[in-house]
Amino acid sequence: MSDHPGSDRPIEIVPSVLPADLARLGEEVAALEAAGVDRIQWDVMDGRFVPNLTFGPDVIAACRPHATVRFEAHLMVEAPEDLAARYVEAGCDLLIVHAESTRHLHRTLGAVRELGAGAAVALNPATPATAVAHVLDLVEMVLVMTVNPGFGGQDYLASMEPKVAEVRRMVLDGGHDVDLEVDGGIGPSTVQGAAAAGANILVAGSALYRDSGGLAHAVGELRELAEATRR
Ligand code: DX5
Predict the structure, then answer these.
(1) How far is the CA of 176 from the centre of ligand 1 (A)?
(2) Which residue, 44, 168, 207, 211, has fewest beta-carbon neighbours within 10 Å?
(3) What are the pLDDT digits (tens) for 158-198?
(4) pLDDT class for 231, splitting at 50, 70, 90?
(5) What is the three-state SS of the chain?
(6) 93 has catalytic annotation
(7) Is 8 a catalytic residue?
């Protein structure tokens, strides 16, 4: 095993559903699974925490029977504690709570676990890594945003790579069993920077759907590029 930070964690490629054909979401979710993704991320936006509005729990519940991979809900909402149970009932296996979105982060992550779901914490670009230092024992994953949340198709912030490395170091030094995800602007030209910094779960939206070779080609290429950073 290389001494690459995070090389003990399997690489996962995760699609953001935002760029999919929203008129055929069930089929799109099945197509993503067939393309070899490891899980599916639902970008949940409430128009308050971020200036955009997306998927309610009923939409996700309708799509749940169309795929067997894990569903993670990236909750870009104010007061996620008020909505968590609805998203778990809808079939989400993992809820990602933003550190900036709730007054009592430790309590909210505990509440998500009590609902029987996995818990994860996300950091906006301006939020320091230390914001998660005291909840690493509660989560299975930390998400370092590599764009300011709210929209797909934005440019990747390479300036977040030192924060990815810092979180990876905190996880390793604390002996925590925690994955590290990045999200925003991930594509063939940026995935290696994020993986080399210590991320093992890579979320991509527009890069998957704009690949002329199709979804399976796009997923395979991102996985190959990310894994190459560990050799
Ligand atoms: C942005 C979302 C991301 C975004 C990713 O707020 O959290 O998941 O949809 O899309 P791309 O890969 O196009 O940046």
Answers:
(1) 27
(2) 211
(3) 999 999 999 999 999 999 999 999 999 999 999 999 999 99
(4) confident
(5) CCCCCCCCCCCEEEEECCCCCHHHHHHHHHHHHHCCCCEEEEEEEECCCCCCECCCHHHHHHHHHHCCCEEEEEEECCCHHHCHHHHHHCCCCEEEEECCCCCCHHHHHHHHHHCCCEEEEEECCCCCHHHHCCCCCCCCEEEEECCCCCCCCCCCCHHHHHHHHHHHHHHHHHCCCCEEEEECCCCCCCHHHHHHHCCCEEEECHHHHCCCCCHHHHHHHHHHHHHHCCC
(6) no
(7) no
